[in-house]
Design brief:
By secondary structure, the protein is α+β, with helices and mostly antiparallel strands. It is built from seven helices and six strands. The protein has two domains: 100 residues, no CATH class; 67 residues. The chain starts with a strand and ends with a helix.
Length: 226
């Protein structure tokens, strides 16, 4: 038995399923949905159990909002919402743990409730039924359209390509580890030396090494200067 999930969008044109590829692209800022630019849309995530490869039981359905900017992206609003979620939760817990007094500050509670209203919603029974019909592929269910993002669908990844990616990833982690412990001066010299290698067949790879060293040096500088 395993767990799976599906994402849905309750748009003006009815319920649509959002492919996980599109959800991932939206969260990473690599995809957009221009058709919803400048709007706030209701979405839901259904988490369900699989038995023998088929849905057997819906565990939960969580309603949330996607706040699209003028370009149809949501990464900035998701990051802002996540920060506010942590901040309001922390403030509320701190207020609960505070010593009781005659004057009780309800601001943390109100801020948390405001965040809940702006970021979460509870699907009604009719909306839950629509999702259940899709998950269990009931004959009475209307075939749902898939919400489309702007990014092109990636080409299929062959077994050989997957193995190559796996090996490359392990080597990239090794390269990244070489930056750890280096000083700003050492990173500056490393970046300069890497750019001197740009004349060979690995020009683009050396450029990546140089850029990564520059980024690491910038991070160290920001820590040093506060």
């Amino acid at each position: 038995m395993s767990i799976s999930l599906r994402s849905y969008l309750f748009g003006p044109d009815g319920l649509q399923r959002i492919p996980q590829r599109v959800i991932s692209g939206l969260c990473r800022g690599r995809d957009a949905m221009p058709q919803y630019a400048g709007t706030k849309q209701k979405t839901a995530t259904a988490i369900y159990e699989l038995e023998n490869g088929k849905p057997s039981r819906i565990l939960s359905v969580e309603g949330s909002y996607l706040d699209f900017d003028k370009a149809g992206k949501v990464q900035a609003s998701l990051a802002r919402g996540a920060f506010e979620a942590m901040q309001t939760y922390y403030d509320l817990e701190q207020s609960k743990a505070a010593q009781p007094s005659k004057v009780f500050d309800i601001t943390p509670k109100l801020n948390r409730e405001k965040w809940q209203r702006e970021n979460r919603w509870t699907p009604c029974q009719a909306e839950l039924d629509l999702i259940a019909d899709d998950v269990f592929e009931r004959k009475t269910a209307t075939s749902l359209k898939f919400a489309r993002g702007k990014a092109q669908k990636p080409p299929p990844l062959t077994y050989e390509a997957k193995e190559a990616i796996r090996e490359i990833r392990s080597q990239l982690y090794l390269i990244a580890s070489k930056f750890e412990g280096l000083s700003e001066q050492a990173l500056k010299g490393l970046s300069f030396a890497a750019r001197n290698e740009l004349s060979d067949d690995l020009e683009q790879l050396w450029q990546g090494v140089a850029d990564a060293a520059d980024r690491r040096r910038e991070i160290l500088a920001r820590y040093r200067t506060g």
